[in-house]
Specification:
alpha/beta, Rossmann fold, N-(1-d-carboxylethyl)-l-norvaline Dehydrogenase, domain 2, 2 domains, six-stranded parallel β-sheet, three-stranded mixed β-sheet
């Protein structure tokens, strides 16, 4: 079969049915990337009321996929790649792809009372927030956006600026309440984004900040689905019969936990497997520490050993022992009753799946923020509770040793890292960067210093037991 360009008409022709009309736009998404398409778009596509909930997706850092996605009527192929085979599905929940700079379209959608939800996938550092959860007004782009919003023709470049622009338009149109749903690996991400957005809006217009506090719900989430960046278009076309420039490869496993209100409504995501809970913290910490923490540890320990993928690294006995030791410390910080035994078993199976080519170099980006939320957060709890913190100390030492290999990974805090590495006491300075709390614990700093001095990338897990 000769592959055909994937469009709604082509899909209908193959099925012998009339082409279904795209769903009306009721969700705005900021960050048109692989994970969004494998996760939020997938859940929305599978929801029982999917025909009522279309997504307008605004590009993030790159606009390369906009024309391609619109040419395919928003359709793309999702490939669930299990150890023994693939499952292919065409996802149709994205009905419009928009350039991030198109503020006119963003404001028009925000003014529509039928638009009920704004979801985001912009990475931990993309919010430009300080460790206190406030806008980083020392950041040039944040300052420029603040001045732009105080003017008559804003063209914001940051997520905070774009969110406040959209919410101001909604307020001016009296379009009613709305929910904002960040889907990034940040503890209590809804609360953090709320604090940042309201603080930014306060500098623009105190009345707008008051309106946001009264009318906007910020939902906290835990998201989980390994989605490596992979280019396998020719093989997917051969399997599916579609020419698809935007196919996404992901694993069969998925999880989405949400806590918060949706004052203007939402899709029936629970019909697709999402869970709604009162307290997000146990779920997000389980995922951040066990999955994301292990990914970072495998990266920092695996790359110097010459490994290229998660599957390669988890198959190495030393890397596996480092992960197991870190997990033993991490789960001690989870609330009683939080299931983690089966979850850890699932993680090993997921990591070892050789057909999910999850490259360590991909995980290496934004390492400093990841260490803060994944390693330092565990260490802080262990120290505060008087528990053994040697595994998290070793994890931080492994990161510091990896930095000294000059990995060249993209990091929004690269200038601060460079300054810390060049300081008279680089270990203490780097710990201060990811946790001022730990930097004030002399014995913890000395433990990390000793581990680094002895060669963290060559250590055995015996140092963490």
């Amino acid at each position: 079969m000769t592959p055909t360009r994937l469009t709604r008409d082509a899909l209908a022709l193959r099925s012998g049915e009339v082409a279904a009309a795209p769903a009306p736009v009721r969700i705005i998404h900021l960050g048109l990337g692989h994970f969004f398409r494998a996760h939020q778009a997938w859940y929305t596509h599978r929801a029982a009321d999917a025909a009522e909930w279309g997504i307008a997706a605004f590009a993030g850092r790159s606009s390369a996929g906009i024309d391609a996605l619109n040419a395919q009527d928003g359709l793309f192929t999702l490939v669930e790649r299990g150890p023994e085979g693939d499952r292919l599905d065409v996802i149709g929940s994205v009905v419009e792809a928009v350039a991030a700079s198109d503020m006119a379209r963003l404001e028009a959608l925000a003014r529509d009372p039928q638009v009920a939800v704004i979801t985001l996938t912009v990475t931990e550092s993309g919010y430009r927030l300080t460790s206190a959860g406030l806008p980083d007004f020392d950041d040039t782009d944040v300052r420029d956006d603040l001045e732009a919003l105080r003017g008559s023709q804003p063209a914001p470049a940051t997520i905070l600026g774009r969110l406040v622009t959209a919410l101001r338009a909604r307020r001016e149109a009296d379009a009613g309440p709305i929910a904002i749903v960040p889907c990034d690996n940040i503890p209590r991400n809804g609360e953090l984004v709320a604090r940042g957005v309201i603080a930014f809006a306060e500098r623009v217009d105190p009345g707008l900040a008051e309106w946001i506090a009264a009318n906007v719900s910020f939902v906290s989430t835990s998201v989980d689905r390994i989605t490596p960046h992979a280019d396998d278009a020719a093989a997917i076309a051969a399997q599916s019969g579609w020419i698809d420039d935007l196919a996404v490869i992901t694993e069969p496993f998925s999880d989405w936990v949400l806590a918060g209100d949706f004052p203007a409504g939402r899709p029936q995501w629970e019909s697709a497997g999402a869970r709604f809970v009162d307290d997000i913290e146990p779920w997000e910490n389980r995922k951040l520490w066990l999955l994301n923490g292990a990914h970072s540890l495998l990266t920092f320990a695996g790359m110097p050993r010459g490994f290229g993928t998660v599957a390669d690294a988890i198959g190495d006995p030393t890397c596996r022992e480092l992960v197991d030791a870190f997990w033993r410390e991490a789960v001690a910080g989870l609330p009683d009753g939080t299931e983690h035994v089966q979850y850890r078993e699932q993680l090993i199976e997921r990591f070892a799946n050789p057909r999910i080519v999850h490259r360590l170099a991909q995980i290496a980006g934004e390492a400093t923020t990841k260490v803060e939320f994944r390693f330092a957060a565990v260490a802080e709890r262990s120290v505060a509770a008087g528990r053994d913190a040697s595994a998290s100390a070793l994890a931080i030492a492994t990161w510091i040793a990896w930095l000294r290999t000059d990995p060249g990974a993209v990091d929004a805090r690269a200038d601060a890292v460079t300054a810390a590495v060049a300081s008279d006491d680089s270990v203490a300075a780097l710990i201060e960067l990811v946790s001022p709390t730990l930097a004030d614990v002399p014995w913890f700093v000395e433990d990390v210093r000793s581990l680094v001095a002895s060669g963290a990338t060559e250590m055995t897990v015996a140092r963490a037991n």
